[in-house]
Amino acid sequence: MATVKKSAKKAAKKAPAAKGTKYVYTWGNGKADGNGSMKALLGGKGANLAEMTRIGLPVPPGFTITTEVCTYFYANKKTYPSSLQAQMEAGVKNMEKIMGCKFGDAKGLPLLVAVRSGARDSMPGMMDTILNLGLNDETVKSLAAVTKNERFAWDCYRRFVQMYGDVVLGVQKTEGEDHEPFEVVIEEFKHEKYHKDIIDSDLTADDQKELVKRFKALVKDRTGKGFPSDPWEQLRGAAGAVFSSWMNDRAIVYRRKYNIPAEWGTAVNVQAMVYGNTGDTSGSGVAFTRNPANGVNEFYGEFLVNAQGEDVVAGVRTPDPVALMKKAMPKPFAELMKVRQILEKHFKDVQDVEFTVQEGKLFMLQTRNGKRTAAAALKFSMDMVKEGLIDWKTAVLRNPADQLDQLLAPIFDVTEAKNAKELAKGLPAGPGAASGKIYLNADRAAAAAERGERVLLVRNETSPEDLRGMIAAEGILTAKGGVSSHAALVARQMGKVCICGASAIDIDYDKKTVKVAGETFKEGDYLSIDGTSGTVYGGELKTAPSEIITGIVDGDKASKKTEKFKSFLKLMEWCEQATRMAVRTNADTPEQTRIALAFGATGIGLTRTEHMFFEGDRIDAMREMILATSLPARKKALAKLLPYQREDFTGIFKALKGLPATIRLLDPPLHEFLPHSKEQQLDLSKKIGVPVETIIQRVHDLHEFNPMLGHRGCRLGIAYPEITEMQARAIFEAAADVAKKKIAVKPEVMIPLVGFSKEFDLQAEIVHAVAKEVMAEKKVTFEYQVGTMIEVPRGALTADEIAKGAEFFSFGTNDLTQTALGISRDDMGAFLMPYIESEVFSKNPFATLDATGVGQLMETAVTKGRSTRPNIKLGICGEHGGDPDSVKFCHKLGLNYVSCSPYRVPVARLAAAQAAIEEGKGAAPAKKAAKKAAKKAPAKKAAAKKVAKKAAKKAAKKK
Ligand code: PEP
Ligand code: MG
């Protein structure tokens, strides 16, 4: 953790706080210092509160303490800039003026405030909210007197002491405790007085007074200090707690998962309280302007009468669907519907709002772009284009590429689900199907997942402490809470299957059991959950692929009729329109090729020929070839391999129907193919008729200390040219046979692991010679290319030399990462997490391209390759070709295509299209600037035109 803190410090040092800096931005009464575009400085919440105020929505007044203060706080031993107090006082004064009451007033109505954190993006794990701040033993009395509502005043005070005690003073459950200490006090009190479980809103004023007393005693007992009564001390304490929460473990875990820089910091929002807990004409709710689980255009959320916002999101009471508010509070509901329209029109996206109704009057407390599932994102984007809210390019950008595979995620096998025992129903909070062993605690769930088990996390409700378990689980099931509870929000964001509020399940944390429908499940037993319908099943259920998969891959007619399928196709069509870079696939069989083409691949970017030998007894012929000790023996084995290869290539060429196929010559890291166990060696000996002693000796001779850097790639073909010869023959004979059937073929023969141009030349010479021979023998001509992989640093650094002979480059970024970083691609498990935790890596470099390091080698190769051969074809076929961030980087490099596994093709297509659209947005101002220049200086019109032309050309080239 120390390193994380250090980086925040470093950032602060870079930007020391200037004198006279504005640290506090106020809003209220239709006016705001800030606006919606200032998220970096004001955080998402603060910026949008300012924006809502500006557009005339009913927002209680308040102020934002900027993220710069957070940076200052960490750079200066947790202290504040000297001018902050005065600026906060001015902020409080502004609120007092608008609200007509005073902060800390023990005689009249006291101004109470809510304090909330607000990072640029909302972040579970950080301090969330403290309500009713400003109450003490005196102000609570004046609040009760002025409102003539004693129960309400003490309810506010009780909540305040509880929240403040928990998040500011740190009175939280310790190891071994399963419940929050304040909740334990409440439960004990309820049973002591009422001998049953009553809901909080049934507690009387006297009950609340008693609870405040007990809470304060708890605080004293746990912290050794009394509860602070000075409102300003409370406010400073709350702000400090927000800033401190930026560096707590949960926030760090979250930032790491979502790649949020520690340097961003958080803002603090202080807002005048409005009260949802004054009685039956008041309430609080959270809602989405459209359904974030399935995308349906319906107001979707939850509402609780006589409650403050925390009650809705904490999942402690299960709220009502917001639609019921229409009946209970028709006027504020109608107003809310108007606000819904205004917000979507203004922000042009689905909003996630928090609101409070105080005695019939509606107040908006927050708006932000709603988190959504991939299915909802797809539907929102399609619908909003139809409604004219956004254009198609924005729609493409609205579908997160790294979420797209959720759409391709499995559902339960229909017949299995029909026959399975339905145990309970809950709220469908995260779509998809998941089956796994249940665990009732996040740590045990995470540990089980680490052991390789598929896990379901089952809790009464989740809190940010459960994040690790949620990340590890396939699915999350809660007994309490609604669709906007912590569990639901976080699950949706992570793309996890989730059911909330399945109230029929009875969890016993001590016994580690779940009782439901008369059955008892222990930890480690299987349950299955359908997060689309909200159904909980007993046992383990098989899953089935999504309609998109069955529609595209199997051509299933019913799937093709679904809205999801049609929308997906439309999205892909738009991607096609926007993209500059092509997407190919890494495929080794005709079936894989067929699937990839169905997903829109435009050719094969990598066929690993050694993978073609994994099937059946082909591996024996391959092993025979590797183990051969003489040329005749090797040729004999190669003769066996040739027909297999020719047959495979024929199938692939036919499946491609004239699209290009990059076929890589043999690159077997030998250790992957040698028979290591005695059993395997004996078996092989029988099959190929070579004495087992010879095999053992040969395996011994071929042993390599570092096989990844050993006798593989083109080194094999240079030592044994007959291997290259056989492969080239198989490729070209297949091409000739297919071409004769009047099917176009475009073979591209690729030489692996080239670091020296001579390596390439030696291998290319053989390939060209065989091509000539085969064309003459078969009396047919066809076009072909010979190129290379760039996958060792020397290859990248001497790309200009290599490009003299190579007609294309394909970046093998698996090996290029391995060799550039000097880190074995197979052996980083032991230090990957510590490296990510200490921020050496921000992401696994074998999954997401290390743009600064490996990317530089690629850039060099691109520049040098093009300097020799301007139209050289450039692609990537390492695993990074299916990773959205890496695809975007490849676009920036100007590659012609990326290649990835068949099921990643849609993800790569979406990322490639987004890269083109984002670049187009960036390029436009260049054109505009040139135009402006032309207008400004008519005398120099000709020259300006030239500039404009140049800029336009540059922009077009970039596209
Ligand atoms: C690579 O190294 O990126 C590559 C595609 O080749 P392989 O993974 O087969 O070594
Ligand atoms: Mg490689």
Automatic annotation (TrEMBL):
Residues making up the signal peptide according to the UniProt record: none
Keyword vocabulary terms for this entry: ATP-binding, Kinase, Magnesium, Metal-binding, Nucleotide-binding, Pyruvate, Transferase
Coiled-coil regions listed: none
Superkingdom of source: Bacteria
Domain Pyruvate phosphate dikinase AMP/ATP-binding: 82-328, 334-387
GO molecular function, one term: pyruvate, phosphate dikinase activity
E.C. no: 2.7.9.1
Enzyme class: transferase
InterPro entries: ATP_grasp_subdomain_1, PEP-util_enz_mobile_dom, PEP_util_AS, PEP_util_C, PEP_util_CS, Phosphohistidine_dom_sf, PPDK_AMP/ATP-bd, Pyruvate_phosphate_dikinase
Reaction(s) this enzyme catalyzes, per UniProt: pyruvate + phosphate + ATP = phosphoenolpyruvate + AMP + diphosphate + H(+)
Region of interest called Disordered, as start-end residue ranges on this chain: 919-959
ATP-binding found in the keyword field: yes
Domain PEP-utilising enzyme mobile: 454-534
Cofactor needs: Mg(2+)
Residue span, PEP-utilising enzyme C-terminal domain: 566-915
Compositionally biased intervals (Basic residues): 928-959
PANTHER family, A to Z: PHOSPHOENOLPYRUVATE DIKINASE-RELATED, PYRUVATE, PHOSPHATE DIKINASE 1, CHLOROPLASTIC
Cited function: Catalyzes the reversible phosphorylation of pyruvate and phosphate.
Family: Belongs to the PEP-utilizing enzyme family.
UniProt name for this protein: Pyruvate, phosphate dikinase
Organism: Luteolibacter arcticus
